[in-house]
């Protein structure tokens, strides 16, 4: 396993393991009521965590933090991380999302294959069990059917400074509650006509304990259970039960659930006292969600970007989704490294996007094969070519695939009488300090010869169309004469006759503000219109063999990836700029 930054969660787990908290872990659920484990068998896993997305959208970089955390803890402590779909909400869920979530987790390098089964947990598999738990609460006098209207319930909930008011239905007899709840289940009552609430304390300073709703009527088909149910549990009721059923030890969630923890503990305590679960019960622990500058991490808002066509889909390389990052050229290793570097804490903060890019550069610098590409092409003619080499000659050149890893091999390409260079590498009248091509100056064509600029050609508007230069004989890189002439400028180039045209998509941050949705700002108002720019370029001939999804460093320009979707389609070569070589953020 990779080196781990310590975090407060590891300290908690270390202490619990040291005092034997989990030594006696068994499961007290009743067989046939959604039991997952043999109650008598001790749990072979030292700890259990879970990653519980709702399958209602694509995962984003914030989820990656949660994935690295939960799967990483399980990996490092000899535990298991459950892949669980929190699919208690029948309306918004879809198989497309389920598939993409599983793909994203595998791609990130994690597996939920604890014992060769690749078991996926689904909250909806426990609906019977949850229903039973609700009846137990009713029987214990801890839940009641409320028939107030939604407006009345809202009005009676009170405020932060004012206690709530008891519902007139709060003291219904147990028998009547049970009868009505069963009628709800049997479809005898209309949506919104009644609701099951926990009976806790309308005067609690924590509004979440003011008799929270736990079951509601919804005549909706569910992707797993079909039309079996017309009542569905609320998330806050379902989640603790899911955790306890699966013998989760650490239920790690984001800080906004801190106020829910008392209800989590209340509910599991009730069900323990009713004999349904036994100690040690799962423990909810909150951590700070990832906020990344220039990025939005809300599924709803990302969905809006897609649906309103501000981007070209969930996997648009400008998107912070896992599929978007992947298409942009991010690697799983870079994302894991990023998550390690930012660590886990209890305090909300903003992480600078440059930390994500830094992790990416650190990963790609060691791995990515090198190549040359000219992004803003200007023709250069070598006017003494025929005199020096004869007509039709091409001059073989070579370069390392990676400057530090000889084993990665050597690239071969030819120097030819006409090459493409970057427009910015020529200045007819050089500014102070300019070291590349200007009349009478010498510079090196990288991996080739020193050349001496002799002038340029222009069109009718005075734009430079061709740069003219002469090869300085006996100065080829890698030959004894290479150092005979000293030059200060080195220029990247691509042969005009042997290089290949390629489309390059230059991506930039999607928003012009570091906190696009902060302080009530509409994030749609700060979309960066220049976040995608498409240019026509020339690339080194060997790069035409690139397979889709492969990353390269284009020397001096940055990291690029052959687009997973469009590269190689109808003969077109398409690369995405993943990031520049140096940090260009925040400046
Ligand atoms: P969103 O608010 O974007 O819809 P969510 O929290 O509702 O996200 P879920 O599918 O419920 O999405 O999330 C699955 C898990 O990922 C949860 O445990 C949640 O805590 C975690 N998670 C979601 N967003 C972030 C984030 N920005 N940083 C860290 N963890 C996150
Ligand atoms: Mg959620
Ligand atoms: Mg959320």
Automatic annotation (TrEMBL):
Ranges for domain tRNA synthetases class I (E and Q) anti-codon binding: 490-563
Keyword Ribonucleoprotein: no
Residue positions binding ATP: 54-56, 254, 289-290
Superkingdom of source: Bacteria
Record's subcellular location: Cytoplasm
Main location: cytoplasm
Gene3D superfamilies: HUPs, Ribosomal Protein L25, Chain P
InterPro entries named in the record: aa-tRNA-synth_I_CS, Gln-tRNA-synth, Gln/Glu-tRNA_Ligase, Gln_tRNA_ligase_bac, Glu/Gln-tRNA-synth, Glu/Gln-tRNA-synth_Ib_cat-dom, Glu/Gln-tRNA-synth_Ib_codon-bd, Rbsml_bL25/Gln-tRNA_synth_N
Span(s) of short sequence motif 'KMSKS' region: 296-300
Domain Glutamyl/glutaminyl-tRNA synthetase class Ib anti-codon binding: 368-469
Signal peptide: none
Keywords: Aminoacyl-tRNA synthetase, ATP-binding, Cytoplasm, Ligase, Nucleotide-binding, Protein biosynthesis
GO molecular-function term, one example from the UniProt record: ligase activity
Reaction it catalyzes: tRNA(Gln) + L-glutamine + ATP = L-glutaminyl-tRNA(Gln) + AMP + diphosphate
Domain Glutamyl/glutaminyl-tRNA synthetase class Ib catalytic, first and last residues per copy: 47-349
EC number of the protein: 6.1.1.18
Binding-site list for L-glutamine: 86, 235
Family: Belongs to the class-I aminoacyl-tRNA synthetase family.
Assembly mode: Monomer.
Protein name (record): Glutamine--tRNA ligase
UniProt source species: Uliginosibacterium aquaticum
